[in-house]
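User: Show me a protein chain along with its predicted structure.
Assistant: Here is one chain, sequence first, then structure tokens.
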Amino acid sequence: MYKPLYRMLVCFTASLMLVFANSASAAVVNSVKGIVDGANTGNDFGITTGYEFFATFIYDDSGLTNTGPETITFDTNGLGNTFSFTIGSVSFSQGDDTFGGAILNFDDGAFDGFEFDTDPGSPVEFSSFGTGSVYNFTGGDSATINGHWDGSTFGAAVPVPAAVWLFVSGLLGLAGVARRNINRF
């Protein structure tokens, strides 16, 4: 009665392991907080000084050595490394960068700035340049909003494959418990 369930659980777990075996790269999920230092009063985006938002980055860190200045690039076609953030009522992602792709900067493994620039001719522009983590946001009623990235909030990296392997090992544990219970009957 329970043997078909056990076999199905084992087959499902084995399938997951095969599917994710090739995706065991060093993909990490990380985020950094943006803080608004100055904003025009009554801007179209409803943003005031002190407003906080988070940019989320998913990237492959296998090439980083955590020694000296290093970069992670984000292509504009949405393949590979990705990021996204929403400030006020406007959202941005790697596809919005019009100057060859955004760059995440590190110095000795620590967040050291984010380079991203949208088309200056677009209704809304967001630009963030190099180290120092400063950004500018303009648009709508020509509101000018500026601020900085709080590098101290750059979260601990969460390896995506590690979570998958943890899930699969839990399934294997359940399969073992199921098998032990089957042998009792």
